[in-house]
Amino acid sequence: MAMTCQAQGKTQVFILMGQSNMLGEGAIGPDNKNGSLGFAVKTEHKYQYLWDKTNNSWAVRDDVRYVFTMGSGNASFEKSQLLHNEWMTVTGKTIGPELGIGNFVGNYSKEKVMILKGCIGNRALGWDLLPPGSEEYDYTDSKGNKWTYAGYHDSPEKWPKGTPPKPMGWFAGEQYDGDTERMGVILSNFTTYMPGETDYEVAGFFWWQGDRDRYDTGLSSRYEKNLVQLITTLRKQFNAPSAKFVIATLGQTPMNATGNEGMIIDAMFNVANGTKYPQFKGNVATVYSHPLSMGGSSAAHYGGNAETYMNIGQAMGDAMVNLLKEDELHNNYYH
Fold it and tell me: Which of 38, 149, 157, 332 is 20 to 30 Å apart from 100, CA to CA?
């Protein structure tokens, strides 16, 4: 018998953040093209929970709501796009990892689920998505040049150490502010976006990002510290101190990678190490995406192969369920 989380009637909200691959570039069609979702489901008979055989159409889950808001920087909710607001099904032209995530957590939860996504492409954790509380730091590059990198709400991204910064039309954390504020609007008007439900709790966060940071060693070397700050700040901002956090690595990066990508994948696994970060023990998990990718790179959106997005989404959802199960086992044992 499957275990379910004890939510006491509250809709379980799972927040998805990152950049373009979290946004979603996996092709849904055409059905006759290997690599599309239609081909995987209808020809290769994979991910069969997505197909309603009775009605010969994409299945619709009436217990999992999918809401996706996208805007550039801190644009207001009204000036941004509401790309999805429906009971979870396959619709549009592309997918991200939300279908795999939503079905796994939806199957586990005895309460209804909202998958709430807020992201846009080409954004760095160390710059655009820098969370509140992040401080300036200095970095010396391979040529011996010394730079000061922006702290939260500083501008520009970096400047020569010892010189005054010359602000540009963007500041550190501008995308973080916008993504979290727009998702906050959804949650503040919860019943509008989750018909029939009035109460919720943020049960978890999903993070799939890192491509933009890998092009700058100064950002890559700071990725772990920024990721720790992100986890801590998101939990505080959404009043969810016990919310679980699942990270996925970049699909092209192997475990023994060196250089900038090596620093990023190491950072992702380090924050899930409960010995190094006792505060994250049992509540943060990292998914190793390399074996799940069908090829290509994060920059090229994995060639648009929908199976990569499904495989990684399922693994992220499974990792979240495992964290929730461990929590439930602990609560049941001590209560």
Answer: 332
Distant-in-sequence, close-in-space partners of 134: CB < 8 Å, separation ≥ 6: 151, 152, 172, 173, 226, 229
For the stretch 94-152, pLDDT in tens is 999 999 999 999 999 999 999 999 999 999 999 999 999 999 999 999 999 999 999 99
Assign 238 to helix, strand or coil: coil
> Chain centroid to CA 42: how far?
28
* 223-258 pLDDT tens trace: 999 999 999 999 999 999 999 999 999 999 999 999
Quick check: 288 and 75 in contact, CB under 8 A?
A: no
- Which residues contact residue 29 at a Cβ distance below 8 angstroms, ignoring those fewer than 6 apart? 36, 37, 38, 93
Tokens linked to 317: 């959802």
**pLDDT confidence bin for 327, thresholds 50/70/90:** confident
327-332 contacts: CB < 8 A, separation 24 or more?
Answer: 327/5, 327/242, 327/244, 327/282, 327/283, 328/3, 328/5, 328/6, 329/3, 330/282, 331/6
Residues 6+ apart with CB under 8 A from 289: 248, 249, 250, 251, 253, 312, 315
- How far, in Å, are 84, 134, 150, 268, 296 from residue 250 at the CA level? 25, 23, 24, 10, 11
DSSP per residue, 106-151? HHH-SS-EEEEEE--SS--TTTTTPPTT---EEEE-TTS-EEEE--
In whole angstroms, what is the distance from residue 306 CA to residue 141 CA?
38
